[in-house]
Design a protein that fits this description.
heterodimer, A: mainly beta, Methylamine Dehydrogenase, Chain H, four-stranded antiparallel sheet, B: mainly alpha, flat
């Protein structure tokens, strides 16, 4: 066992519901408060942390922030926050709102995730039981809507390596693995030039749709995450404390790899 | 020994034939034998007869026979004598007559001889007479010939003057007759050497004829000339040997000019109608009211068609009968007729397309009928007339189809109207919700459905005017078929149901659905259900009966419409449940989210928001109940009203409560209990489709609301008093919600989970005494 020593203490003017490391080099930390986002600069050498910026999120007093994510593109200069029924993107360099997806969810946006390989693509989920994919350059209409869950969707995650694999967890006790191949960064359909073995290949290609449904949980599943080590493993955690680690089905894996 | 069947038959037949032959001979010889013994027969043989008689008869018979024969002989003798005497007398008188004749003949012979002598005398005399007259007769012949020639010459000399006279008096026919006569005469003398006077004559008459031709040509150019005048002129010109081809084109041109006038009249009517339809136009342009479509067809089209027919008839007489005078005459005529008919039909088409839905169907039907009759009547006259009848039929088909579409859009507009009426009627009482007042929903539903059915019936009955038996085009099987099947049934009726379904779906869409009042959703869902169960069936049968549609192949089957309507109804009721569920959820969510549960005071009463939730649900219950039936609930568990409390403080719940309080300090254990509990409960689909019953609908709403409560509670952290407040609220809900719900276990499961989660999220999980909870709820 290692002895853990306190490296630094973070201070904020609000209760922090979650924090996230900056995705590039871990030199920054993003904290989600009730009505504002706080970014700290970490100085690991000196073991000190300083508030880099505090970004207040516009909105009604009752509506708290439900989540936020670093944008993995553009050197992590952007963060996006789920606020009430909207998603707001902030540019950290100026601390201003850069873009917004109004009414991304009819009730409440619970979570969002950036496509790790396509820089403008974003997925949101929430209380209208739907998972929606957006292009933040054109936030008026979703690119795709999944309506597979029968209750609120709490978490949506893209696979870091194969971004057609989308993981969602919901309070209908299910975790769903869905393919969004049509929106993925990998070639889809007949984009490949049609060789002689074209038909055989297209038959083997992954189509859009539900790939796997994990029904092991017996309560609402509030968290689901891909393994950072293995692209084919994911875990989900439900209210009753049950953690389920699952694998992507073998034939799906082969379809993606071959 | 038996011969084979076939050959034995043949043999027998041969034998029979031989026997028949033999007996036939025998029979005739027997007949001859009988003759020999017959007294009156020519072959009678007295010896044989006597011999036989002696041989066969007794003595008395013989005596009798002898007496008999003797008597006969005597009578025959006396007869013979009388005959001989009579004949003798006749012979004598004949001899006398012959003698007298001989004398007479001699006298006659003498007279004949004298007659012959006289005749020879007469012949001799007549020959002498004719010889004497011969000379005179020749002279007379010569004189009469001269006279005839002189007459002709006189005519020729008089000709120029007469021609001029006739032309001046516009008596062209007379002039042409004169000219033709003179032509003949001149031809007769054509071979003779031309004298100066004859040449002069020719020149003069030619001059007159040129004038005549020019006059006639002028008349052809004249637009005011009547068809009869034209016809006469052309006939005369043809007689004068003018080229038929040029005349053809002139006549056609003249007819086109005349018909252009009629056509202009038609198009001006179309323009007027368009102006009238365009109410934006300034008033002075609309001073002239257009004729209605019936009058338009009756007067304008008819006059055009009759003029055209008249022209075609005279043209045919002039150029095509009995043989074509010009090779292109027929094709020119048909070209001209085609272009004229095309412009007529297009004018009629544009006029018909301007006919608005407001005009009666009957008028339009009669107008189309007139048009069709006129076209049929002129079809006999016009070249390729059948094609125009067909084109007219197409026109009629188009007009009726347009009409059907109009009535469909009328129906749709009416649907919109009645929907907004329903919406208004339902919105008005909303600000003052008093449960004493009877719910207007059922009433609105009845009027809405009744209006719908009535409109469809009226529309179809209206459209039936197009297939009345007295309409000439209505009886055509092909027209009738397409009209009834494709247009009325598919376009209007089925189209309307589709539109209705579409409209209903529109209400469920996220975009438009939010604004729609839930009661409208409820009403529409019920309307869909009623349509599905009876109205669609009734209306489709009504239509099929009215239009006598028997063969239903290729048509949209009733079941399809029914299932579409049913699906729309299901969608609507699901949406209703969702909207209402979310409304209640919103209240619960806010009530949980905005409260500081960690610093709550000890609960003194049920929170008011719970009471509001229960009230809201009771209102929904009443609303749904006014439209939907109760549905199958599990009532058998609790028949009396106070049993509603029993499940909660029954042995099972009691124990559970004890478990909670005893295990409360240990989080792990309570989690274990909850898990074990869940092992035996079924997964609950929150936004599951509901049935068309009050209980199922309410269950759906409550499920959504409680699940929201559960999730919201899980996001909070509770102090001891916070948890106790939740306990009170949950109990209150339990006591008040059971009467709305189908399966009480479901309610208990969800509420237990809410409380369980609150215990999970509590820092000092300690529940209240049950009696206190009960007292607090009773006070509320």
């Amino acid at each position: 066992m290692w002895g853990l020593t306190l490296a630094t203490a973070l201070f904020s003017s609000e209760d922090i519901s979650s924090v996230q490391w900056q995705l590039m080099d871990g030199s920054q930390l993003l904290g989600v408060g009730e009505h504002q986002l706080t970014v700290w600069d970490l100085d690991t050498g000196r073991g000190a942390a300083a508030v880099s910026s505090e970004i207040p999120c516009p909105g009604r007093a009752q509506s708290a922030l439900t989540g936020a994510r670093w944008n993995p593109h553009q050197c992590c200069s952007q963060v996006a926050a789920a606020c009430d029924t909207h998603v707001r993107g902030f540019d950290l360099r100026c601390g201003q709102q850069a873009w917004t997806v109004e009414n991304a969810d009819a009730q409440l946006v619970r979570d969002l995730d950036f496509n790790p390989n396509k820089q403008y693509y974003l997925a949101t989920c929430g209380d209208d039981c739907r998972v929606k994919f957006w292009d933040i350059r054109k936030p008026t209409a979703p690119l795709k809507v999944l309506v597979d869950h029968s209750h609120w969707v709490w978490r949506v995650r893209f696979n870091h390596f194969h971004d057609q694999l989308v993981l969602t967890s919901s309070s209908d006790w299910r975790v769903l693995l869905t393919s969004a191949a049509s929106l993925s960064s990998e070639p889809y359909g007949h984009l490949l030039d049609d060789d002689d073995d074209g038909p055989a290949q297209s038959g083997a290609q992954l189509a859009d749709g539900q790939l796997a449904c994990c029904e092991e949980h017996e309560d609402s599943v509030y968290a689901a995450e891909w393994s950072s080590a293995d692209p084919w493993t994911y875990a989900s955690l439900s209210f009753d404390g049950r953690l389920v680690v699952s694998r992507v089905p073998r034939q799906v894996k082969y379809k993606i790899l071959l | 020994m038996a011969a084979p069947g076939g050959s034995s038959d043949a043999q027998r037949r041969a034998r029979n034939a031989a026997l028949k032959d033999y007996y036939g001979c025998k029979a005739s010889s027997e007949m001859a034998d009988n003759d020999l013994y017959n007294l009156n027969s020519p072959h009678f043989n007295p010896d044989m007869y006597l011999h036989q008689l002696i041989k066969e008869s007794s003595l008395t018979d013989l005596m009798d026979t002898e007496a008999n024969i003797y008597k006969q002989i005597q009578s025959l003798d006396s007869e013979m004598q009388t005959l001989v005497y009579e004949n003798y007398n006749k012979f004598i008188s004949a001899t006398d007559t012959i003698r007298k004749m001989k004398v007479d003949f001699k006298k006659m012979e003498d007279e004949m001889e004298r007659l012959a002598e006289n005749m020879t005398h007469i012949t001799a005399f007549s020959a002498t007479v004719s010889d004497t007259l011969q000379v005179r007769r020749d002279e007379i012949n010569k004189l009469s010939n001269t006279h005839v020639m002189l007459k002709k010459l006189q005519f020729l000399f008089e000709l120029p003057a007469q021609l001029k006279d006739a032309i001046d008096k516009e008596n062209y026919k007379q002039a042409v007759e004169y000219h033709l006569q003179s032509e003949r005469v001149l031809e007769q003398y054509g071979t003779a050497p031309d004298t100066a006077s004859l040449q002069g004559l020719r020149a003069e008459s030619a001059q007159s004829i040129t004038r005549l031709v020019a006059a006639l040509q002028d008349r052809l150019q004249d637009d005011q000339a009547t068809p009869e005048q034209i016809r006469e002129s052309v006939q005369l010109l043809l007689q004068l040997g003018q080229p038929a081809e040029a005349l053809c084109s002139r006549v056609i041109a003249h007819a086109q000019r005349r018909l252009a006038g009629d056509l202009a009249q038609l198009t001006s009517q179309v323009e007027l109608a368009r102006a009238a339809a365009d109410s934006d136009r300034p008033a002075e342009l609309r001073l002239h009211l257009p004729k209605d479509v019936l009058e338009f067809v009756d007067v304008d089209c008819s006059s055009f068609l009759s003029n055209l027919s008249l022209f075609v008839t005279s043209y045919k007489e002039l150029f095509l009968e009995p043989k074509s005078r010009c090779p292109e005459a027929a094709s020119r005529l048909s070209d001209c007729v085609r272009s004229q008919m095309d412009s007529l039909l297009s004018a009629v088409d544009s006029r018909l397309s301007l006919e608005s839905a407001a005009g009666g169907v009957a008028v339009l039907a009669r107008a189309l009928d007139r048009l069709y009759r006129r076209l049929q009547a002129s079809a006999a006259v016009l070249p390729e007339g059948d094609a125009y009848v067909r084109a007219g039929m197409e026109l009629i088909g188009g007009a009726t189809e347009r009409r059907c579409r109009q009535s469909l859009s009328q129906l749709c507009a009416h649907l919109q109207q009645s929907l907004s009426a329903v919406r208004q009627a339902l919105v008005v009482p909303a600000p003052a919700p008093s449960s004493a007042e009877p719910p207007p929903l059922a009433e609105q539903l009845a009027t809405f459905l009744g209006g719908l059915a009535e409109q469809i019936r009226a529309a179809v009955t209206d459209l039936k005017a197009f297939i009345q038996p007295e309409l000439s085009f209505g009886v055509q099987a092909r027209f009738r078929n397409t009209f009834c099947r494709q247009h009325v049934r598919e376009t209007v009726v089925v189209g309307f149901f589709r539109h209705f379904v579409e409209t209903c779906r529109g209400f469920c869409d996220a975009a438009g659905g939010e604004k729609t009042s839930p009661s409208v959703l409820l009403l529409l869902s019920r309307a869909c259900r009623d349509l599905d169960t009876s109205t669609v069936h009734y209306l489709m049968n009504f239509v099929d009966d009215l239009l006598r549609i028997e063969d239903k192949s290729g048509l949209t089957p009733l079941a399809d419409i029914n299932s579409e309507v049913r699906a729309a109804g299901q969608q609507l009721i699901n949406h209703f449940v969702r909207v209402q569920g979310l409304a209640v959820s919103q209240m619960l969510r806010k009530s949980v989210a905005t409260r500081d549960w960690q610093h709550a005071n000890e609960p003194r009463s049920v929170r008011s928001v719970m009471k509001r939730v229960v009230e809201e649900l009771a209102m929904m219950d009443a609303q749904v109940g006014s439209v939907y039936e109760e549905g199958a609930a599990r009532w058998e568990q609790h028949n009396s009203s106070d049993s509603s409390r029993r499940p909660y403080h029954g042995p099972g719940s009691q124990r559970q409560r004890h478990e909670w309080s005893s295990y409360a300090p240990s989080q792990v254990d309570s989690g274990l209990v909850a898990n074990i509990q869940k092992l035996f409960s079924e997964r609950i689909e929150i936004f599951a489709p509901v049935e068309f019953s009050k209980v199922s609908i309410l269950t759906g709403i409550i499920k959504i609301a409680l699940k929201t409560l559960l999730e919201c509670v899980r996001l909070k952290t509770f102090s001891k008093f916070g948890l106790q407040q939740i306990q009170v609220d949950v109990y209150y809900l339990q006591v008040n919600l059971w009467r709305f719900i189908a399966d009480e276990k479901l309610l208990h499961g969800l509420l237990d989970e809410v409380l369980g989660s609150a215990i999970h999220r509590c820092l000092q999980p300690a529940l209240m005494e049950f009696s206190v909870v009960e007292a607090l709820c009773d006070r509320g």
